[in-house]
Amino acid sequence: MNDSKRFGILSGFVAAILFGASAPLGKPLLDHLNDFQLAGLLYLGAALGVSVFFIGKNPAQTLRRISRKNILRLSGAIFFGGILGPLFLMGGLRIAAAASVSLWLNMEMVATVIIGYFFFDDHLSKKGWLASLGILAAATLLALEGGVAGFKAAGLIALACISWGLDNHLTALIDGISPAESTFWKGLVAGSVNLILGLLVGSYHAGLLNTIAGLGLGALAYGLSIMLYISSAQQLGATRSQFIFSSAPFFGLLFSLLFGGTLSIYQIGAFFLFLGSVFILFRESHAHHHLHYPFVHSHTHYHPDQHHNHYHPEGEGKPYRHSHEH
After folding, report:
1. Considering the domain boundaries, does residue 324 fall inside one?
2. What's the predicted TM-score (pTM) here?
């Protein structure tokens, strides 16, 4: 294995670790910020995190060179992935344990492939449907532990994942914009909107340290994570890098345990069911129709969003979705 491959593997795992840490590290900040305020800080942080791509450049040129149709797609991606998605995530994170939320985020992959099947002519095999049902069964198992509150939290995370699934498909249709540019505009616009809404619905009492923590978490978990994911994809190819990045929710579970969380029998069972189902679904989706997105953003994403941006190794500025003939 040469040095570039080693660097690609390392970059992919660091990206997954950073994104996985977003839920367990973000949950304590909800003690000082309302849902809108934290979502706003995280996404503004994501914009800061990818701003290194624009040193000596004017990011506004992006909007001048793409068509009106692509502007509408970007606006939709910002609305679903940058505004609705993180708000649903914050609501679920406020109710449920960070470990459960980390595992529930696996539902984004299910949401993406099912939305693709029904609305974007994507292929989904019988094994793909079985894996999707396995992930939903694991999500239900986790919700059972929390009773009514558990199902409410799972429902909110599911809505977040559906929002990010729509974001993934809309972003994949945009021509003439790079993942970094997409992340920058999502972060700047969605972060500003959410923060303004947060200030309108409640007072801001977070203080300087918590504000810096929110921005820093967004910059690392969604900004730097996406940059490292792109680097990994350049070295390893989209398939291998996405497979590595799909470990992000499981790193989130590990971080939750390191920060004092405990695992219940429900979470252990759901963990193995998620793990097997994600592996099958990932293999099946890449055997037929490829959706190049870091699972999850991001993160940013992102995951907030996935984590929620796309890299195509053949070059930027091309549609990120491609299919094989059967």
Report:
1. no
2. 0.83
